[in-house]
C-alpha cells in the first residue's frame, strides 16, 4: 500500500521505474528529482588534489572517507542507480539589513534540513519499496560519503557553477540535495547538453570577500562559511574584515549569481515550508552575551548547532567590530557594542579562540578613526 492509499504493483521496466520515481518524488514534495547511474565518480582525482593542497582545512572527515567516496557500492552493495532530489529554501530576494544583526546563511534559517530532507526521502523509499519489493535502498543526506553534486550533474538535475555549487534549472543554487542509492535498475534522466552554466561570468569570484574562489574550486581555508561554521580555531586577522556581518555562513557568491536573481519565475517557485526562514540572523549584543543554554535554545531544530558557543561568540566579535568600523550604526548601538567588547576582554576563562578575536578587534578599533568620547561616553580603547 502506498502513502496515498493505492495498491502498488511491482514495476520492473527501467523506464517505467524512472517515471514512477519522478512522480513519487514530486508528490512527496521535492522541488526537483532526477536519476543517475551509480558508477564510480569521475572527478575523484580533482578531489584528491584539493585535499593534498590542504584546501579542505580542518574537515578531515573528507580525507578519511575518500575510499567510500570512490564507489557508491561501498555504501550499498550492488548499487545500480542514484535518485537525486532537491529542496528549495530561498527565492532569491535580498536581505533587509538590520543594524546590529549578525546574519546567518539562508540554508540555516529554517528547520534542520538533514531531518527535513530525510523525512521525505523515507516517504519516497517506502513507496518505491512497495513498487520494487526485491530491491534495496539507502538514504543519503550531505553527511553521507557520496559526491552528491557530481551525481546531481550526471542526472541532469543541476549544473556545477564556478562557485562549485549545484545550479538547478529554474531553481538556481538555493537548493539542498538528497539522494537514494538503490540496487534497482532505473533509467537515467538526461544530463544537461550545456554543462557549463557560467560562460564568461565571474561575478562570484569578484564578490568573494576573502578571494576563496577560483573557477570551479573553493579554498575552504579562506571561505567565510568554512571559517564561521567548520573552523574551530582562531580566525586569521587577514579574514576578519571580509567576514562582514556574517556569524554563520555566507551567501555572497549566491547573491550575485545571475541564476539566482529574484525574477518572477523564481519567486513563484515553491519553497519547502520547513526550510522557510524563521529569522535572518541574531542580535549581536545578545550573541556576545550568550551562555551555552542560550545557544542551545537558539539552535534547537536547526543546522545552526554545528557551531559551538565559543565559535558563535568569536564570530560575533568579528562582525560587531566590522559594523563599528563601517560607521553605519547609530551612536547608542555603537556605544553598547563597544562597551560589551570591553567587558568581554575583562572576562576570566575566555576561550582562546574568543580571546584571539578580541585581541584583533582591539587592534582594529585602535587603528580606526577615533570617535569623540563625549559623544560615545566610553573609553577610547579597549583595556588590554
Topology:
Layout: H1 14-27, E1 32-37, H2 44-52, H3 60-64, H4 66-69, E2 81-88, E3 101-104, H5 113-131, E4 137-140, H6 148-155, E5 158-160, E6 166-168, E7 175-182, H7 203-207, E8 213-214, E9 217-218, H8 224-230, H9 240-243, E10 246-248, H10 252-255, H11 264-268, E11 281-283, H12 284-288, H13 292-299, H14 309-326, H15 331-346, H16 352-367, H17 373-376
Parallel strand pairs: 3-10
Antiparallel strand pairs: 1-2, 2-7, 3-11, 4-7, 5-6, 8-9
Helix pairs in contact: 1-5, 14-15, 14-16
Distance between the termini: 69 Å
Helix/strand structural class: alpha+beta
Strand content: 5-15%
- Could you tell me the mean pLDDT? 91
Write up what this structure looks like.
It is elongated and about 70 Å long. The strands form four sheets. Strands 1-2-7-4 form a four-stranded antiparallel beta sheet, sandwiched between helices. It has helices at residues 14-27, 44-52, 60-64, 66-69, 113-131, 148-155, 203-207, 224-230, 240-243, 252-255, 264-268, 284-288, 292-299, 309-326, 331-346, 352-367, 373-376, and strands spanning 32-37, 81-88, 101-104, 137-140, 158-160, 166-168, 175-182, 213-214, 217-218, 246-248, 281-283. Residues 370-384 have low confidence and may be disordered. It has one domain. The protein contains 17 helices and eleven strands.
Which keywords apply here?
384 residues, alpha+beta, three-stranded mixed β-sheet, elongated
Short summary:
Helices cover 39% and strands 12% of the residues.
Amino acid at each position: 500500500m502506498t502513502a496515498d492509499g493505492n495498491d502498488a504493483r511491482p514495476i520492473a521496466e527501467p523506464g517505467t521505474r524512472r517515471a514512477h520515481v519522478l512522480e513519487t518524488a514530486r508528490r512527496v514534495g521535492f522541488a526537483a528529482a532526477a536519476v543517475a547511474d551509480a558508477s564510480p565518480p569521475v572527478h575523484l582525482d580533482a578531489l584528491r588534489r584539493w585535499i593534498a593542497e590542504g584546501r579542505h582545512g580542518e574537515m578531515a572527515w573528507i580525507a578519511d572517507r575518500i575510499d567510500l567516496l570512490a564507489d557508491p557500492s561501498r555504501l550499498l552493495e550492488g548499487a545500480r542507480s542514484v535518485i537525486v532530489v532537491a529542496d528549495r529554501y530561498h527565492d532569491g530576494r535580498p536581505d533587509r539589513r538590520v543594524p546590529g544583526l549578525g546574519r546567518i546563511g539562508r540554508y540555516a534559517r529554517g528547520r534542520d534540513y538533514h531531518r527535513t530532507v530525510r523525512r521525505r526521502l523515507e516517504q519516497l523509499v517506502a513507496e518505491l519499496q512497495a513498487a520494487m519489493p526485491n530491491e534495496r535502498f539507502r538514504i543519503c543526506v550531505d553527511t553521507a560519503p557520496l559526491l552528491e553534486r557530481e551525481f546531481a550533474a550526471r542526472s541532469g538535475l543541476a549544473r556545477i557553477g564556478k562557485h562549485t555549487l549545484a545550479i538547478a534549472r529554474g531553481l538556481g543554487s538555493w537548493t539542498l540535495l538528497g539522494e537514494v542509492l538503490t540496487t534497482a535498475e532505473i533509467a537515467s534522466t538526461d544530463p544537461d547538453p550545456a554543462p557549463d552554466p557560467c560562460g564568461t561570468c565571474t561575478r562570484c569570484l569578484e564578490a568573494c570577500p576573502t578571494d576563496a574562489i577560483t573557477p570551479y574550486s573553493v579554498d575552504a581555508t579562506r571561505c567565510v562559511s568554512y571559517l564561521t561554521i567548520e573552523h574551530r580555531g582562531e580566525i586569521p586577522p587577514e579574514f576578519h574584515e571580509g567576514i562582514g556581518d556574517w556569524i554563520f555562513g555566507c551567501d555572497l557568491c549566491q547573491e550575485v549569481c545571475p541564476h539566482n536573481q529574484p525574477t518572477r519565475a523564481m519567486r513563484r517557485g515553491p519553497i519547502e515550508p520547513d526550510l522557510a526562514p524563521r529569522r535572518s540572523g541574531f542580535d549581536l549584543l545578545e550573541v556576545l552575551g550568550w551562555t551555552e543554554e542560550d545557544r542551545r535554545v537558539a539552535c534547537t531544530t536547526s543546522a545552526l548547532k554545528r557551531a559551538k558557543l565559543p565559535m558563535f561568540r568569536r564570530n560575533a566579535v568579528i562582525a560587531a567590530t566590522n559594523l563599528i568600523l563601517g560607521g553605519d550604526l547609530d551612536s547608542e548601538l555603537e556605544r553598547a557594542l563597544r562597551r560589551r567588547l570591553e567587558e568581554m576582554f575583562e572576562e576570566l576563562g575566555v576561550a582562546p579562540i574568543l580571546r584571539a578575536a578580541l585581541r584583533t578587534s582591539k587592534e582594529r578599533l585602535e587603528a580606526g578613526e577615533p570617535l569623540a568620547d563625549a559623544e560615545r561616553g566610553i573609553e577610547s580603547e579597549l583595556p588590554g
